[in-house]
Amino acid sequence: MTSSHNSSNQRTLDPRTKLFLLLAANLMLFFHVSVITQIIMVLLFLVPLAAAGRWKMTANFGLTFAILTGLGFLDPEAIGLPWLHVVSALAVGCTMMLPCFITGAYAFTTTSPSAFICAMRRMRAPESVVIPCVVVIRFFPTIAEDYRQIRNAMALRGIAAGGWGLVRHPAQSLEYILIPLLMNATNVAQDLSVAALTKGLGRESVHTSRTEIRMQIVDWLMMIAVMVPLMLDVAGVMR
Q1: Where are the bilayer-spanning segments (predicted)?
Q2: Structural domain of residue 60, as residue ranges?
Q3: What does the alpha-carbon distance between residue 91 and residue 170 come to, in Å, rounded to a whole number?
Q4: Are residues 174 and 199 in the same domain?
């Protein structure tokens, strides 16, 4: 069990590098980089996601980015369908936000709470920042598990069963899925906050951790590779 856990850690980047990738993705959105830079950056973001073994997620993100990029190049006037301007504009907006989703999904799905806490304390982050972040990391997987249990219970009763059941029966979906999730979300957040404080995360004394994180050469190379196209685009070299 230990060897497999260590090998899994070796296939992922340091949590601080993941936060840097997330920052770079947000800078792309802030500076409104060109399409060429977007393609290069997205490919760079997908590499560590694939290296971590998230092949299905990598393929979904890559296919989504390709489709949205293609829709952004549509010329509604040439096609004779002016209403496609709305589709093209939405596609461009989603394409700009997709790198943030890719890096966020990579950071959330490959980082354990203990590793994230260790990384935040290495960066001298205050406990008022560490505790909410840990709660958020644990919150979404818990809500996802609750959603799967609700869907299984609905399928067992024949309510909105199947992939398109939620679309065909929006009223039932709202009643049987959204409302229970919203009611449970408050309890989950409160329980996770209490659990974090119970483990002593809010104490001001010096904390110790059994989790070991270390910046390796691949982390530095990844950060350099991500910053090069971004800096070239901001400088006006890559357009």
Answers
A1: 20-51, 57-74, 86-109, 129-147, 217-238
A2: 1-112+214-239
A3: 25
A4: yes
In this structure, the answer to whether residues 43 and 105 fall within a common structural domain is: yes
Show the tokens assigned to 195. Answer: 């659990």
Q: Distance between CA atoms of 41 and 8, rounded to whole angstroms?
A: 24
Kindly tell me the burial class for residue 1, based on how many C-beta atoms sit within 10 Å of its own C-beta (0-12, 13-18, 19 or more): exposed
Number of domains within the chain: 2
Residue carrying structure tokens 């483990």? 199
pLDDT in tens, 71-115: 888 776 777 677 777 888 888 889 999 999 999 999 888 888 788
pTM to 2 decimal places = 0.75
C-alpha to C-alpha distance for 136 and 131, rounded to whole angstroms? 9
Do 98 and 171 sit in the same domain of this protein?
no
Report how far residue 58's alpha carbon sits from residue 67's, in angstroms, rounded to the nearest whole number. Answer: 14
